[in-house]
Amino acid sequence: MDNVSSEKTSFFRDPDKLALFYQFVVMVGVGLLAFYLVSNTLANLERQSIATGLGFIDKEASFEIGESLIPYSAADSYGKALLVGVLNTLIVSFIGIVLTVILGTILGVARLSSNWLVSRLSAVYIEVFQDIPVLLQLFFWYAFFYEMLPSPRQALNPFTGLFLCNRGMIFGVPKWHSAHGYMIVAFLVACVIVFFLKRWAKKRQEATGNIFPVFRVALLLFLGLPLAAWLLGGAPTEMNAPRLSGFNFKGGVSVSPEFAALLLGLVLYTAAFVAEVVRAGIQAVSKGQTEAALSIGLKPGQVLNLVILPQSLRVIIPPLTSQMLNLTKNSSLAVAIGYPDFVSVAGTTINQTGQAIEGVAMIMIVYLFFSLSTSAFMNWYNKKIKLVER
Amino acid sequence: MKLFKICLTLILTFIFISSATVMAGTLDDVKAKGYIQAGVNGDLFGFGKPDEKGEWKGLDVDTARAVAAAVFGDASKVKFTPLTAKTRFTALQSGEIDVLTRNCTQTLSRDTALGLDFCQVNYYDGQGFLIHKKLGVKSAKELDGASVCVLPGTTTEQNVADFFRANGMKMNPVVIENTAELAKAFFAGRCDCLTSDASQLAGTRAVAPNPGDYIILPEVISKEPLAPAVRHGDNQWKDIVNYSVLAMINAEELGITSKNVDEKLKSTDPKVKRFLGVSPGNGKALGLDEKFAYNIVKQLGNYGEVFERNVGTDTPLMIERGLNALWTNGGLLYSAPFK
């Protein structure tokens, strides 16, 4: 056999070289196809005299947007209109993800509850909300809001400062006062103190075995410091209360029925999936772990926090990430119920400028960016919580 | 920038691959396949919508049929593709349809940037406001702060924003893509008013739970010349669509209807003889049968007949002729001479 390996192998018999050769062929093929598609499209656009390029970004948008986190008017550019859309998508996705994780966790734990009623109710919820298409749920909640709630002139007013009508939920907010600035500073200070407190408490526990009640102290700091700042700042209570004027309410902060319906629909739908993910994660940790932890004298809360959760999180995080991405992507259904998300604004832009290729490409890039950022963050978190073997 | 553009196009190219094959003369294509593929609304009563028997009805539908009558001598040789406001231009650009008769407003930017040409206007429309009587609003100038229901993907969003800005008023748009969903939200009171082209408002009011509760405000805030469109650069096909629409208008000017067109063949009026192809020339110039105008009028009627049948005062839409009357009656319809 020795003499065989020393002989010069033919090119077509050497698997390494052949593999390289095939890869090269495929790459050239893909490259040629891409070149053909791009040049063909550009030529067609040219011949049909369809304008291309991103020149429209600076032009005046001249359409209004229903709700915006930043000041926007029809006199602003398409670029700014698109930014408003991006922010609207971000806010609904972010709040949606936070609420979904909370609700999903509660449902997932409830599903495993030893209480028959609680676990059955949770199971029914999961089955119902998982199995109805999310678009239908959105239509349902939107119709629910505008059909059930009265017009602004007959708005429900359950308590002072809060109005409910088919224009949305309008509530008073404190009028800006310098004391509010102090409260924000106080909150940040509390964050820093808690961070160092946690490190100190951990060190002390490792050295002496004594446990410091970090959670209670942190809660006290988070609530207490801003409260103290508010009192020191003169305890301002003046409210920016909404009042009826013309067709709608002026003043206060309003949450539109479109936003509420989209958020509610997405959260209730996705939470059903998250609940199943959480249940799977908890069931993946064998019962022996719980028994072992109890037998060495840990309290039930500690068993959950120190033994069960760290292990189940490893199972939960990857599918949970995928659910977060689903929620973000599903938020593009907003256009069906009138919430001005990015897809809706981009759609209007495409129609007014006629530049569909650029517009759709922008939509794809923005969603890709959202999804990749979410994935990157969750992957980092996943790495952080993986089992550290000592 | 160039690289970016290439990346952008790469992503979406597959949509356009099909467009590579359709640029030859549309008339030849259409004759070869034996029918015309027309893009229509599909959901707009009076303009383009199938009736309960599944038969397409409407002013735009009849305009497409007129082109079929001109090309094939048979108004039924046309197939319809329902399109949304967003997809309509892409469908025309990509060659999926041969002519777009879908209540499209002719504008300069559409005419120049979208690779299409608009033909003779077949309906002069204008944007207005529909509002519930109980709000007591008498003029659109009283709408400061109102929530306005509006369909996306049209010039409507821009017009209404322009109108509110010009009058120093604030508005709160609610933009819903589906016509039916938008109307439901409006009837339930989510918005104070609904804005759209006046013809569409009439259609929406016709399906309201209580049509009598709603009024259309007097202000018309925009000019909306609705015109058929064809692909840019195919002049012969554009001429054919143009003169198909003009034939209906010219017939009304000459007093020719679907009922008396056969008698008019015996007319001694040279204008009528030229129009109906008794004295030849017009058909050959367009590359059509000499009887093309006769076929249109015989099978569909003149503009007045088409209007009254689809949107006129005897239909649920109850639209007056207004701007769409002949110029001799104070309207804007004025046909080029057929000679």
Describe the structure.
The complex is a heterodimer of chains A (390) and B (339). Chain A has a domain at 78-175 and 238-385: MetI-like fold (Orthogonal Bundle). In chain A, 67% of the residues lie in helices and 5% in strands. Chain A has helices at 2-6, 15-47, 78-111, 116-131, 134-148, 178-208, 214-232, 257-283, 287-295, 300-330, 342-353, 356-384, and strands spanning 162-165, 168-171, 173-174, 239-240, 243-245, 248-250, 253-255. In chain A, the strands form 3 sheets. Chain A has a 3-stranded antiparallel beta sheet. Chain A has a two-stranded antiparallel sheet with strand order 3-4. In chain A, strand 1 and strand 2 (168-171) form a beta hairpin. In chain A, helix 3 crosses helix 8 and helix 3 (78-111) packs antiparallel against helix 11. The mean pLDDT of chain A is 87. In chain B, helix 9 crosses helix 13. In chain B, 50% of the residues are buried. Chain B is an alpha/beta fold. Chain B folds into 2 domains: 26-122 and 227-255 and 304-329, D-Maltodextrin-Binding Protein, domain 2 (3-Layer(aba) Sandwich); 126-223, D-Maltodextrin-Binding Protein, domain 2. Chain B has helices spanning 2-17, 26-33, 59-72, 88-93, 108-113, 156-166, 179-187, 198-206, 235-253, 261-264, 270-276, 282-286, 292-300, 303-310; strands at 36-40, 49-50, 56-57, 78-82, 99-100, 116-118, 123-125, 127-132, 146-150, 171-175, 193-197, 214-216, 224-226, 229-231. Classes of the chains: A mainly alpha (390), B alpha/beta (339). Chains A and B meet through helix 2, helix 5, helix 11 and helix 12 of A and helix 1, helix 4, helix 5, helix 6 and strand 10 of B. Chain B: One of its GO terms (biological process) is amino acid transport. Chain B: It holds the Pfam family SBP_bac_3.
